[in-house]
Amino acid sequence: MFACLCAGQGKAPDDGAKPKAVYPTAHGVLKSISRSILLVEVDEEHEMKFRLTRKTKFYSSDKQGPREIKPAALQPGQTIDIDMQTTLDGLFEAVRVTLVSPK
């Protein structure tokens, strides 16, 4: 089973501001992270590989809300959400990686 939630495009805001992009989100357990690749186990049988770029942002989500963190704060075994986009060469690129705090 592919654990990926795809969201639709939102309506343009009434105030004339540019609408925010909406990305599909994958949820899973971090297997490994390097300078350019993020490997995530999305279920017992499937892993997904994401390309990391200088545009990729990392966040931690807790009671106070999301706050930006450094990639080094992520450790294998932690649960994360990855907002992604597909690149022209067909690979997944991580746009936003959020560390999910345990409940």
How would you portray this structure in words?
The chain is an all-beta fold. The protein has one domain (24-100): OB fold (Dihydrolipoamide Acetyltransferase, E2P). 0% of the residues lie in helices and 50% in strands. It is built from no helices and eight strands. A hairpin with a 5-residue loop joins strand 7 (79-86) and strand 8.
Q: Give the second-level CATH assignment, the architecture.
A: Beta Barrel
Radius of gyration: 14 Å
Q: Mean pLDDT across all residues, rounded?
A: 85
CATH third-tier fold name: OB fold (Dihydrolipoamide Acetyltransferase, E2P)
Q: What's the overall geometry?
A: globular
The number of domains: 1
Number of helices: 0
Secondary-structure-based class equals mainly beta
Cα(first) to Cα(last) distance is 24 Å
Low-confidence sequence ranges: 1-13
Q: What is the string of SSEs from the N terminus onward?
A: EEEEEEEE
Secondary structure topology:
Blueprint: E1 4-5, E2 25-33, E3 37-43, E4 46-51, E5 57-62, E6 65-68, E7 79-86, E8 92-100
Parallel strand pairs: 4-8, 5-8
Antiparallel strand pairs: 1-2, 2-3, 2-7, 3-4, 5-6, 7-8
